[in-house]
Amino acid sequence: MRSLKKTRRIQVIALAAVALAGSAALIGYGFRDGINFFRSPSQVAEAPPPPSEVFRIGGLVEDGSLTRGAGTTVTFAVTDGGASVPVTYTGVLPDLFGEGEGMVGTGSFINGTFVATEILARHDETYMPKEVIDALKDQGVYQAPES
């Protein structure tokens, strides 16, 4: 009788271990392209990531840097007050995108330019992503919005 209880217990533990390993594998597979690290322009300037790495960069669109090219190509610079990184984006920009406004872009750093595949802008006049606020506070240039 004891041997049957031990066998059942071992079977349950083995099944639980297999289920745990399977769920961890499914979670990892689901996140394989969904995790992007955030970097400020100062972090990108001091330690440029490899061209194959996809990450997010955020800050303020530098005044006077926004230029529209042929078609839907746009170039501008993003800054956190400490460093400025040139950005190229091909696509339609959000309506609230503009100079001096907060933005977060997803893409890769290729040949000294951040090539964005997605650009996000603030959604009201006081919103700024938490990562951008933290980066601006680290640089000492953050100004709280007036409300």
Note down, in words, how this protein is organized.
The chain has 147 residues and is α+β, with helices and mostly antiparallel strands. Helix content is 31%, strand content 30%. It has 3 helices and 7 strands; from the N terminus they run H-E-H-E-E-E-E-E-E-H. The protein has helices at 2-30, 41-46, 130-139, and strands spanning 37-39, 55-61, 67-68, 73-79, 84-90, 102-110, 113-121. The protein has a 5-stranded mixed beta barrel. The radius of gyration is 23 Å and the shape is elongated. The model has no long low-confidence stretch (mean pLDDT 84).
Question: How much helicity do the residues have?
Answer: 25-40%
Rg:
23 Å
- What are the secondary-structure elements, in order, as H or E? HEHEEEEEEH
Share in β-strands: 25-35%
Termini separation comes to 73 Å
Biggest sheet: strands, sense, closure? 5 strands, mixed, barrel
User: Which sequence of strands runs across the widest sheet?
Assistant: 2-4-5-7-6
- Rough shape? elongated
